[in-house]
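Reference record
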Amino acid sequence: MTTIRKIKAFERKYGTTLTQLLQDGLPDDASMEMHEDFIEWSGWQRTYEEAGQVLASLKPLLLGDVAPDFTLKNQHEADVTLSGLRGKKVVLSFHPLAWTRVCTIQMQDLEQHEADLERLGAVALGLSVDSAPCKKAWAEAIGVQQTSLLADFWPHGGVAQAYGIFREKNGFSERAAFIVDQGGVVRFKKIYPLREVPDIAEILAALKQV
């Protein structure tokens, strides 16, 4: 049973949401069985923050929603935190896997338009489930230096789950682009066919409207 199915089963069984239990704790009259189930469920996720990412994936992220915050390592092993970029527009460019042709073009497009992004008050981040060392080797191989390539490696695809675009059966994210405004709100969202390179001109045009 997948993690999401386990969560839904728990919520059906006890008539409450795990989000509420994480906030308020178990009720005083909770049964021993509920305590045991909750402890078991807690073991499925390493932290409550990770649990929140899974729970967020149960509903789609909509325009006007606050973008889920995250901190991930980039190809230089530096931490990048979304909320640390407040005041800038942020392009989140999700791609399935490093070392693939379409993903390579997608990241090179961001790198080649880094100056255009800067003029628009924006920064682009590339995200996939690959590890930071993998991202480092790939970035060097494809000539990406200025654009941060982030490792959504552990919890596996956690950020993609939080944004509602994790393909659980494949173990990687959709190919997608989000634009987050200066205040951390989602203003643009598009999911692309896996074999289609996102149109950088479309993304730049969308940034001008934010």
In short: Residues 44-49 have pLDDT under 50 and may be disordered. The CA atoms of residues 87 and 181 lie 8 Å apart. The first helix runs from residue 3 to 14. Residues 71-208 form a domain with the Glutaredoxin fold (CATH 3.40.30.10).
